[in-house]
Amino acid sequence: MPVLFVLNPGSTSTKTGLFRDDACLGERVIRHPDEQLQQPDGLGGQLAFRLDALTRALEEDLARTGLTRADVTAYVGRGGLLHPVAGGTYLVNQAMIDDLAANRYGEHASNLGARIAAALAWPEGKTAYIVDPPSVDELFPLARYTGLPSIRRRSAFHALNQKAVARRSAADLGLDYSQARLIVAHLGGGISVAAHDRGRVIDVNDALEEGPFSPERAGTLPTLQLIRLAAAENGDLSRLRKQINGRGGLFAYTGTTDCRRIEEEAAGRPDYRELLQAMAYQVAKAMAALAASLEGRVDALVVTGGLARSDILLDEIRRRVGFLGPLLVYPGEFELQALAAGVLRVLRGEEEPRHYTKEESQDAVL
Q: Does residue 364 sit within a domain?
């Protein structure tokens, strides 16, 4: 049975999992000290100490389970910010490493996933993979249009967890993912709502700059009011960018991104309850709108992410869009399992691995 070491770098920690076939032999969260994270070289300066910490964790987990490095079949990293690609499992290659090392399409901790996986795998003559990176782009042509030819909608969302939960919900419905029509809402620090049409995400909000507001993001804003706000910054847009992405959403209203705390206080604060209901209302509107993308043929509505544990949010969503179909709820995220499952599908011959190629003409994103 294949043995996989899976890693998911975050801004302050790295999650790891050791899998033997479908079974997880152990997960851990490695928290990195602030003094190490504050590297003058940015993400590139973090590679060495994260790799060292993960190597120690791997050796400990292998020893605990009676395995050795020779038993590891492949290494799997969280996909980073790449040019638009189709969903699937990708072999890590030098073209991918080059784009991630240069942060060509944006800087995010997930850019280290493939680099660390390769650093572990390649010296041993083994293969490194990523699965469903955030830049998965399967939008159908009509979904790309805006009202200006110079601006086109792009796909940037929680592809890994979205795809994993869509597969799981399809199976729970007795369907293959390639047959199912689903509307999936990932509710976390950012929110993405997507239409899954028989294995492809044909429409989804860019979770960084549009869609429902979230604990830390402002979501879609009235355009002219936003222009006036930008003009007031006198050309310095860095503060406005933080307001929109990082200090927007629930944080802008309450000073915290902790939805559990806001929900606890909502019992005595009607304004907090209304705020959560407003966020759920925007999610419900987005889900209802995507029913048009699926031409009304919706097998199920799916809610996942950390905020899927909120009764206030779920009650509001269920009340407003329950008429579209059954509502399936999968609280939390399943990213380590999704990374392992993607590679297992390739190793079992259920899918062909995909190959990343550099696109010289592709413009970098912000």
A: no
Note the pTM of the prediction, 2 decimals.
0.88
Contacts 24+ apart (CB under 8 A), 343-350: 343/2, 343/4, 343/74, 343/76, 343/89, 343/129, 343/131, 344/2, 344/4, 344/21, 344/22, 345/89, 346/89, 346/129, 347/2, 347/73, 347/74
Based on the number of CB atoms within 10 Å of its own CB, is 64 exposed (0-12), middle (13-18) or buried (19 or more)?
A: exposed
Q: Within 10 A of 286 (CB to CB), how many other CB atoms are there?
A: 24
The pLDDT tens digits for 256-294 are 999 999 999 999 999 999 999 999 999 999 999 999 999
R_g over Cα of the chain: 21
> 23-31 and 127-131 as β-strands: parallel, antiparallel, unpaired?
unpaired
The CA-to-CA distance between both ends of the chain, in Å, stands at 42
Burial class (CB in 10 A: 0-12, 13-18, 19+), 244: buried
Query: For residue 173, how many other CB atoms are within 10 A of its CB?
Result: 17
The whole-angstrom separation of Cα 105 and Cα 108 is: 9
Are residues 103 and 186 part of one domain?
A: no
> CA torsion sign, 326 to 329 to 333 to 335?
negative
* Residue 314 near residue 331 (C-beta atoms within 8 A): no
CATH number reported for the structural domain that contains residue 106 in this entry: 3.30.420.40
Specify the number of domains making up the chain: 2
Please name which of 67, 121, 39 lies closest in space to residue 113, comparing C-alpha atoms.
121
Residues forming a β-bridge with 1: none
228, exposed or middle or buried, with CB in 10 Å at 0-12, 13-18, 19+? exposed
